[in-house]
Specification:
alpha+beta; 171 residues; OB fold (Dihydrolipoamide Acetyltransferase, E2P); 3 helices; five-stranded mixed β-sheet
Length: 171
C-alpha cells in the first residue's frame, strides 16, 4: 500500500467517524457545528467577570450554579470583527479535553441554529489552504442543503497553552 493510499484511507475513516449529531450555530454569515456530545448546555448571555492579563478573546469567567467557568468569544478567537451582543447571542458550555483532563468552557456565539444529524457522505475532508494556515480545529465540511457548514473539533480550537491559561482562570 502506498503512502498516498494509506493517507487517503485515514482521511476516509476520519470523515466517517465525524458523522453524527451536531449543534449548529452562526458567527457572522457562517454556520459552524460542534459534536453534540461536547455540548453540556446552552445559556443566554449573563454577566461575565473580566480577568486581567488574558488574551482578547477570553471574555472572563461566569458563575454557573456555583461553578466558575471561563468564557471565550469565538468571533475574536477566529479574528472576526467584534459586534455588540444581541438577544440571540448565547454561551454554549462545552467540554474541552486537555492534557490535564476536561475543562468546561463557555463559548460566545452569535446565535444557536439547530441540531443536525450529519451523515458521513455529507462530510468532506478539510481543504488544504497551504502549510501556513492551521486548520487542525476543523473536523470537516458538511454539505447540506446546497451550503457548507464548518464542523469544529472543539478540543483543538485552543492550543495547550491557551487551555492551561483557562484552567488557571477558573481556579
Amino acid at each position: 500500500m502506498t503512502d498516498i493510499t494509506r493517507t487517503m484511507d485515514q482521511v476516509v475513516r476520519a470523515v466517517e467517524a465525524s458523522a453524527g449529531k451536531y449543534l449548529t450555530f452562526t458567527l457572522g454569515e457562517e454556520t459552524y457545528g460542534i459534536g453534540i456530545l461536547k455540548v453540556k448546555e446552552i445559556i443566554g448571555m449573563m454577566p461575565i467577570t473580566p480577568v486581567p492579563k488574558t488574551p482578547e478573546f477570553v471574555k472572563g469567567v461566569i458563575n454557573l450554579r456555583g461553578k466558575v467557568i471561563p468564557v471565550i468569544d469565538l468571533r475574536l478567537k477566529f479574528s472576526l470583527d467584534s459586534i455588540p451582543y444581541t438577544e440571540r447571542t448565547c454561551i454554549i458550555v462545552v467540554e474541552i479535553e486537555s492534557d490535564s483532563g476536561t475543562v468546561l468552557t463557555g463559548i460566545v456565539v452569535d446565535a444557536v441554529s439547530e441540531v443536525l444529524n450529519i451523515r458521513g457522505e455529507e462530510i468532506e475532508p478539510t481543504p488544504t489552504f497551504g502549510s501556513r494556515l492551521n486548520t487542525e480545529y476543523i473536523l470537516g465540511m458538511a454539505k447540506i442543503d446546497g451550503g457548507v457548514k464548518i464542523l469544529l473539533n472543539i478540543d483543538r480550537i485552543l492550543s495547550a497553552e491557551e487551555i492551561s491559561g483557562l484552567e488557571n482562570t477558573s481556579n
